[in-house]
Amino acid sequence: MKTLTLLLLTLFCLILPVGASAKRIKDLASIQGVRQNQLIGYGLVVGLDGTGDMTTQTPFTIQSITNMLTQMGVNVPPAAVLQTMLKNVAAVMVTADMPPFSHPGQPIDVTVSSIGNAGSLVGGTLLMTPLKGADGRVYAMAQGNLLVGGIGAGAKGSKVLVNHLSVGRIPNGATVERQIQTPFDQGNTITLDLNDMDFTTANQMMDVINQKLGEGRAIAVALDGRTLQVQAPTGPARVQFMAHLENLQVDTGVEEAKVIINARTGSVVMNQNVTLDECAVAHGNLTVVISSLNEVSQPNPMSNGTTVQTGQASVDIKQDKGSVIRLKKGVSLNEVVHALNTIGATPQDLLSILQSMKTAGALHANLEII
């Protein structure tokens, strides 16, 4: 009996598709209208240990302090006096991401960034700062003690810094004051936006939703290669419906072969579907070094001569031994990387080699330069 069970399990594993790239809908798409919203505000950080803004160069800090104290009924001295007094205050911008379905009273994290010339925000306290959305309305209020992940010290012109001291965070530092309405619970349909445009994935997702949740009806329609419209129940039942929908598995098929090249850093990333036709690659280095030595010829004393600048230059050309390597047709990613490493190609060399192979028609992948 035990042997029969093991045999049946083995046959079942053999029947399963090998290398199927099934992913959840929640990993492939997002719900239109259910997203984060960016908030921003201007505020003041106080309590700094003499590392605040140099107010002679940041007049907006003085203006902010003056306005705040005036609103609190404090008799503010002239601005010239404040310039010599304020050392523990810094003007900052406060940013936050408001999650979807946030309700009044819920806390969110905020990031505080100096916009003046403050040396450090360590030990500072953010005063009450309204956070506004793109429509100019206040959606949250931020206040609290900053957490700065760094340290710094200096004396007599020397300075040592660890990490960045002019940016800090306040966990749960803002409280939501106004809810943002979303179209999630409006109408009889919801819209799914694919993370990447792909007609195959959109069609496969439509078929899976109709088979698993349609109950014989076509409740999902692919509008294009990126958007699906799905009929959904109204009221609290929509949440349960979405919980089932986002966990459905969709077979996305074979992913597109792609090579990502970062021209600034020289990094190259390829996925496993990159293949080659048979080709040959030659690799060699040519180095040209030009050096010059400038000299000045002084005239003899009591002469009417003039100073003449002379120079000598030397040119040295060095060419390393090149190498030619043959790459067979249909090789995998590991073989491509191994072959390029064999000829000693650096990341910068790979940029030129891969572009030339693509131009020659030997590289079967889309090159994306960022």
Please tell me about this protein's structure.
The longest helix has 15 residues, at 199-213. It is built from eight helices and 23 strands. The strands form eight sheets. Strands 3-4-5-10-7-6 form a six-stranded antiparallel β-barrel. Strands 2-11-13-12 form a four-stranded antiparallel β-sheet. A three-stranded mixed β-sheet has the order 16-15-23, with helices on one face. The chain is of the alpha+beta class. Helix content is 23%, strand content 37%. The chain folds into three domains: 37-151 and 162-176, no CATH class; 187-251; 258-295 and 313-369, no CATH class. The protein is flat. It has helices spanning 2-15, 25-28, 59-71, 79-85, 199-213, 237-245, 333-342, 347-359; strands at residues 22-24, 29-31, 37-46, 90-98, 107-114, 125-132, 138-145, 151-155, 158-162, 167-176, 189-194, 220-222, 227-231, 249-251, 258-262, 267-270, 275-276, 279-283, 286-297, 308-319, 323-327, 363-364, 366-369.
Write the layout of secondary structure elements.
Layout: H1 2-15, E1 22-24, H2 25-28, E2 29-31, E3 37-46, H3 59-71, H4 79-85, E4 90-98, E5 107-114, E6 125-132, E7 138-145, E8 151-155, E9 158-162, E10 167-176, E11 189-194, H5 199-213, E12 220-222, E13 227-231, H6 237-245, E14 249-251, E15 258-262, E16 267-270, E17 275-276, E18 279-283, E19 286-297, E20 308-319, E21 323-327, H7 333-342, H8 347-359, E22 363-364, E23 366-369
Parallel strand pairs: 15-23
Antiparallel strand pairs: 1-14, 2-11, 3-4, 3-6, 4-5, 5-10, 6-7, 7-10, 8-9, 11-13, 12-13, 15-16, 17-22, 18-21, 19-20
